[in-house]
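Reading group handout, session on sequence-to-structure problems. Before we discuss, look at one worked example. The prompt was deliberately terse, the way you'd type it at a terminal:

> structure tRNA (cytosine(38)-C(5))-methyltransferase

The input record follows.
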Amino acid sequence: MHCAWNESKIGGEIVAAVDINTVANEVYKYNFPFTNLINKNIQSLSAKTLNRFNINTILMSPPCQPFTRNGNYLDENDPRTNSFLYLIDILDKFEKLEYILMENVKGFECSSVRKLFVDKLKECKFEFQEFLVCPSSIGVPNSRLRYYCLARKTAASWNFKRKDEIMSMIPVDYGIPNTLESIIEKDVSDKYLINEKLLRHGNIMDICFKDSIRSCCFTKAYTHYIEGTGSVFTAATPETVKMCFEKANSFDVGSEKYVESLKKLNLRFFTPKEVSLLMSFPIYYKFPETVTLKQSYRLLGNSINVKVVSELLKLLFN
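And the output record:
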């Protein structure tokens, strides 16, 4: 969110950042050492305390698990919604709040928590617009369909033309879609090569090339599982990949000869740096050495696309 705010070029000061994930906070502090970072559950902060910051804008990404299949779609019955429900409850207590941007997973738009949130926005005299947007729709070569809500009190001066339904596009001219070549690192360590155990599942891999203008959504389980966790990369040509898979599939899937046929492709995982660039983080954004590879992928899998949020912020303040 901080990176998106910076990219949007909107003036203002980040007065506080709040999170309870200690690893996320470590990375945040490493990149933004001078920002007031509060390592607490927001439920421990009263409206009176929050008003001392003179907040006029909130950017937030509440826990998404209650609105996912893995979280059993427990919705407001999931205790992980408590922090967001608390914020909804005290929304009318903010003395200077004018702007809100909220992000969550696709599925939130069907939840009871969404209704509670929208009803509270109306009660507090906010105008709002909801979105279901994928980064690929603005030229980013990555899929990450997410729900967003923009809310603003000064609606009379809001130049953005809103619609009653959820919008699926951000009205922005992004030009020619980017390819993956611009984010691919050189001389990548062999530790990112896909091991034999995972190569046995080669037929379910989503393979990308330097000229690809797409990649699958990266999740926190990336590198631990193959299916549905994100794409893999090869420097080989599509023709070479096709030929190797034709040979591999002449053997039993998962067999030793099958795996040997795929080894020639040097299939590898995207590095954390490459994933962060696909999610539009700035080139200077880094992970401290104390953060492990697994932790890096988990944080990225729970993160947002910076470009999408920065474009939405421009609409919010238009």
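Points for discussion. First: The chain has a mean pLDDT of 95. Second: The first strand starts at residue 17 and ends at 18.
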